[in-house]
Every structure is written in C-alpha cells, then in structure tokens.
C-alpha cells in the first residue's frame, strides 16, 4: 500500500470518542491535570534551584504531595539526565519500586523499561534508554559492587528514609563517601567506569515523616526543604477506649464503613499472612448473613509472601458496584498508592522481626507501630479524593507511641551487609560512619560467622576468591557458600534448585477444606531424608513433566500446563514459577563466575553431605525428651509441624530456619549423620562433640 493511501485512510476514519486513540488522549489530559494539582507542582522551580545549589538536600513533605512520582520528572526536565546520566530512586520495598515506576511511565506516556524503569532482585526492566530508575535500596547497594562510584547516576534519591531499613542505612553512609570521592575527581574520566565522565553526585533524602534534623546533622548541616500541603484531606478517628481484640475491632470497623460511609475502598493494616487470611474468611462468612444488595464487598489480600502477580491484584479497580477491602501487612504502608482507597483502618500493631546474634535466632513479635508508621498508614488514604483514617486505639495512646521504628541495622543479621562492605573495600567495619551504629557484639558475631564460612581471611580481609564470589551472588552468604561447595561436591545443579526453592515462600498450597486430600496427593514427593529433598523432587518432577511436553512451544501453553500440574499436586504454582525464575538467574550468575553446573543425579548421599558441609552452623541434635538442641547456640527447639520430618524425628538434622513464634521452631530440614559435622567442618566441630 502506498504511504499516501494509508495516511488518508487514517485521516478519513471517523473519530470515535471511545476509540483507543481518544481514550488515551483523555487519559493523558487527566494525568496532566492531576500532576498540576499536586502540592509539589508549584514548587518545581524552587526545588530544582535547591538541588542545583546543594549537593545534599533533605526533603520532607506530606504523604501524597507528589515527592516520589514528580521530583524525578522535574530533575529530568531540568537536564539532570543529559549525556546518558540517570536519576536513581530507592524504595525499601519491591512492590513500591514496581508500582511507582509503572505510574511514572504512564505519566510520561512511555513504555515501562524505556525512559522509566525499575530494578529489583530477580526482576530488572531497565534498558540502555532508562533515565529514571526506581529500585530497591538493596539493588543499588549491589550495583555499587560493580560500579563503586555509581557513575551512571547524576542524582540519587533515597526515598522513605524514615523506614531505616538496613540497606538504606548502609547507603546513607556509602553515598556520603561516594559523593566525596566523586567531587574530588571533579568531572574527570575515571578508569573502571567504562570511560564515563564522573560528575559530582547530588544526593536527596526524602520522607513524609522524617525527623529531618537527624539527617541534616549526619550530613554536616545539610539543607532541608519542606513541601507544604497535601492534595486531599484525611480525617483521623480514634477509638474512645483501648480495644481488647484488634482483629475483632477491625472486622467491625470494616462493616461499619461498608454500611455507613459513602463509596470508596478500604485498606486495613494487620500483622501477617495468617491473620489476613483469617480476616478474609471472617469477612466472607459475615457477608453471607447480609441481604443480597449489601454483599458487594470484595476482600483482597496483600502480604510479602504472596507472589508479585497476586500482590498486583489489589491495584485493579473493584468490579462496578463493589467495594474493595484490601487486607495488608505493612508492605502497603509507605510509598504506594492503591487507587480507590478512601478509608484506612489501622490496627495499631505490626509484626517486627528481631535477630539475636548470640542465639542465631529470629523472633517475630507483634508490637505497637511507631508514630511515623501510623502517619504513613493514614497517608494511604486521601490520594485520589478526601479520606478517613480509623485508628483502633485511643488518641492518648497515639501520643505514647515511639516517634519512629528502631533502625533495622540494630536488629538484623549483619553478615550480608558486612560482606558487601568488605567487597566495597571498606575494611574497618567497627569504625564505619553508620548513622546509627549496630552493637559491637553484633558486628563481631557477623565477622566471626563470615570467617567460619570462608568469606574472610584470619585477619578479617575479604578471602579470594571465595569471599569475592560470595559477595557477587545476590544471596545470603550462607547460600552463596553452599553453591561454591556444591561445585566441589558435583551437585551444583541440585543446590541451585534448593536455594531457589528456599528463596520463595509457601511452596505447597493447603486449602483448609482439603488439607487431607492435599497431603495424600503430595505424598509421592516426600523424601524420608527431609524437606530439602522433598522440594528437589517437586522441582524435578515438574521439569520432567514439562520436558515430556516440550512440543508445546508457546510460553502461554507451557504455563497453562504447569498451572494444571500444580493444581493437581497442591503445589503453589506462582511460588514454583518464581523459584524457576530465580533458578535461571542464579544459574546465570554462577556460570558467569566460570562454574560448570554438574549434577549428582540420584546420589543423594553426596548431596546430603554437601548440605551438612554448607550449613554446619545450622545443625540440631535430638535430645532424650524428643526436643532438639541447636548445636551453635545451645537453644532448645522443636521441629515445625509442617516439616516432613515432624513425625520421624531423626537423630541429627540441618535446618534452614530457626524462628520463635509460639515456640522455638526449626524448619526446612535434612537428616544428616552427626559424624559428618566433624568430618566436613573440622574447623568448627571437634570429633568428641
Ligand atoms: N499508581 C498510581 N495510580 C494512581 N494515582 C497515583 C499512583 N501513584 C501515585 N498516584 C497519585 O500521585 C499522588 C502523589 O504520589 P507520590 O507517590 O508521588 O506522593 P508522595 O509525596 O511520594 O507520597 P508518599 O510520601 O506517601 O510516598 C498520589 O497521591 C496519587 O494521587
């Protein structure tokens, strides 16, 4: 067809107001109007001037004022992305990086991965044209391993700094150093940065509920900038008296809003998966007793163990006439906008993870939120209209809350972070300029663990090549070491599968009503040697099943077959798909490091020996009374009821998890011979032990 003809046919086509072209342009117009109405819009010039004049800027503004979505676009327009440079924005959570990048791409009217993209562990959508890059704080830290001066970025924005994740804290210190080094180079070309010109770095620390002073002081009197006002008001309500049962109170509030308030979706903050699933069931149960026309309430869950695709379901609009009630953990607390949310219900509590370095044990406790968290929760309403926030505690209790959450660096296992710092050439960890120093004993314990794992030399330097290899893999040091050892034991293929399977949660799917049926249909996977080998056989069986149907070329068909297989076997198909993606990625990582991925076939003895050699710090021995003693810490623990070894109780096991919930539990186990420990980890276990 001649070009002229095509042109005229397009021109002659009658414009249908509902055509994709028309609806796209009206959407664009709506977005442009929305952007103009944000409080930050009128501050564009002043903000850019402040960034130009100051190398470090602390920005504080109300939730929803437009900091995260707009500031990067302002910087782009002001020329901060010239000559291929990027603006990097970190988020504490992957769901935030993902959804905000999507929104900003929409606002810029570009495809995700072009001008705007996101990078999170195991999922990178960026391309060489990406200029505004949203990512997790952990991802940026990893990037520093390959490009120490982060030379591709002209500006780095640390968003939601008040959350004080361990990665944010390390970045705050690291970027201080990078900024100093880059300004010393002052526009020169540095070797090791692919010949890129290294310009001074601008650093922006941002939050809605940030004690700016702490950050200003840390950066030697940095300037702070306040963005005043919010787009829509949120009315705050408290209970008159303390509630004895917040789950019950949350349930009543949901139904009260549903029956008394105008239309708009509800977001409820609870503490964890189990609680959320139980409230989901209770909502459904209660709905059955309502008249037909009052039943239009749609409960949806979002928590971190839920695969990404399922998490994304809460962002879709509710069917016409329905009200969404999103049941969330603190995963939905900061940064994100869930369209349609008008009402927030804050239980006032959160599940906090604390690591005890001396016991090598994690504890999960339900604790009151901080003021900053309560403010963030309210801030999830009022983003596309006026909102209301219901806190299930009296106002006087709000004032008693801690201002902010205890920094994660003070309550987590430091071995991964320390390994990364060592790989970045920072040797003096005790003297490192942390904004809040972790305890000396936690640092010493993590250094000792890294030494035992062979990542550090006797004088605490990064061991070559083991330590370097471990730092390059996007895994906890203990898993990286397992891969290195498996290479020597000729079972790398199997270890890659196990590490991938341990990286996802809830491999099995246990619907409450069909628990027995689920167990029976999964029996053929179960290995008497434990959970690791059971997971291995799930993975392998699916692989074989798909291999036999290799003729089905299309990806959609393969996925359909896979879903069917998972359903029959009561396996969580999304978790398994995720595990297969992770497997591919880490296999790529180890191949790049020059490893040859070999398999031990059915020699499970060799494989179990490799597990013992890798995870010797996580061994537990049965006691006379049937409980276990974790050999490293001496803690008395129990096998978790969901483990396949729960009934058989072997003499000695390797565990993956040690967690205090209602009791101290170990889970994800493999049976081993206790004598292997002295044989395979003689530097740690003596024969008589
Ligand atoms: N995914 C989205 N869908 C629809 N609207 C959105 C989306 N993301 C952001 N918005 C709109 O843009 C506004 C500004 O969002 P932005 O995340 O930039 O605010 P913020 O100041 O960074 O807030 P916070 O401190 O809560 O992260 C929101 O209030 C909302 O109206």
Automatic annotation (TrEMBL):
Alphabetized GO MF terms: ATP binding; double-stranded RNA binding; helicase activity; hydrolase activity; RNA helicase activity
Kindly list the biological process annotations in GO that this record carries.
Answer: positive regulation of transcription by RNA polymerase I
The record's CDD domains line, in alphabetical order, gives:
DEXHc_DHX33, SF2_C_RHA
Q: Does the keyword Hydrolase apply?
A: yes
Say which enzyme class the record assigns: hydrolase
This enzyme's EC code(s): 3.6.4.13
> What Gene3D superfamilies does the annotation carry?
1.20.120.1080, P-loop containing nucleotide triphosphate hydrolases (3.40.50.300)
The family database entries (InterPro entries) matched by this protein are listed as: DEAD-box_helicase_OB_fold, DEAD/DEAH_box_helicase_dom, DNA/RNA_helicase_DEAH_CS, Helicase-assoc_dom, Helicase_ATP-bd, Helicase_C-like, P-loop_NTPase
Q: Which residues form the Helicase ATP-binding domain?
A: 48-228
GO cellular component: a single term:
nucleolus
Q: Where is this region: Disordered?
A: 1-36
Task: State the PANTHER family in the record.
Answer: ATP-DEPENDENT RNA HELICASE, RNA HELICASE
**Family to which this protein belongs:** Belongs to the DEAD box helicase family. DEAH subfamily.
Task: State what protein this is by name.
Answer: RNA helicase
Organism from which the protein derives: Brassica campestris
User: What lineage is on file?
Assistant: Eukaryota, Viridiplantae, Streptophyta, Embryophyta, Tracheophyta
